[in-house]
Amino acid sequence: METVLITGANGFVGFYLTRHLLRKDYRVVATGQGANRLPYAQANFECHTMDFTNPSDVAEVFRATQPAIVVHGGALTKPDDCALNPDAAVTVNVEGTRNMLLAAAGVNAYFLYLSTDFVFAGNQDTYAENDRPQPVNFYGETKAAAEQLVQQYAGTWAIARPILLYGVPQTGKQNILTMVASALKEGRMLKLFTDQQRLPTYIEDFTWGLEQMIAKQAAGIYHFCGTDALSPFDMGIRVAHYLGYDKSLIATATAADFHQPAARPPRTMFRLEKVIKEFGYRPTSFAEGMRKTLEGWKR
């Protein structure tokens, strides 16, 4: 039974990836700074408190668990927070990744890094895995810098980039669909961007893809996303229609209408030929993913 160590395990991806891997009989070592929020009690699941910005913490957990596979998903992921706290963003997203790579090298582990579409500027129609990163905000800069460190790893490494993950929240953090649903249910007005487009990714598609990468020890960079190009406004209107809420509560907005510390790429679309060819990836349609995400709201 191979041991997989996951950072950021209490988060959205961590919950679903842990569930996928436990079903495949991996030993999963979930790590995070706070108390364990995952509901698993299987014999092949354990959790450890670990601050990956602290090399001593990391070394201690690696000595105790001896992982064969490391999935580094822990990060500061809010672009505005990274812009306002650049030192913290570098410490967590760059230096934390360096610490994880050094520890992984000590046990010759397969290293899988979870990145983001925000490494790109969003100024071209689609992006392939070998396109050059050009981030437009500091969050993207730190993730691109961490990717560079990963690509220097002496062992087998891989990078997975998703676009705008959504699905049923499991450990407290909301996503765009559930935030819109909550606001509309309470009768609150929303302003949603029309000038940003994404290919939103259903969470279980992404964690299925990560499981495939782990099983095959896939090396290199991989893109994951859906196939429906939507703006936040488009998504909001679809949520309102599906749940029967008042669409007039949703107003249009553009990035120029808000003062945000961090810019956002206007359009991120990934090419999927690589993951389709290597893994047989078949993304869930947005309509089906939305239904799975929000079906509990109809009860």
TrEMBL record:
- Tell me which domain of life the UniProt entry assigns to the organism this sequence originates from: Bacteria
Please list which residues make up the signal peptide. Answer: none
- Which CDD domains does this entry report, sorted A to Z? dTDP_HR_like_SDR_e
Instruction: Show the InterPro entries listed in the entry.
Output: NAD(P)-bd_dom_sf, RmlD-like-bd
Q: Where is the RmlD-like substrate binding domain?
A: 3-295
Q: What's a Pfam family in this record?
A: RmlD_sub_bind
Mind telling me what this protein is named? Answer: dTDP-4-dehydrorhamnose reductase
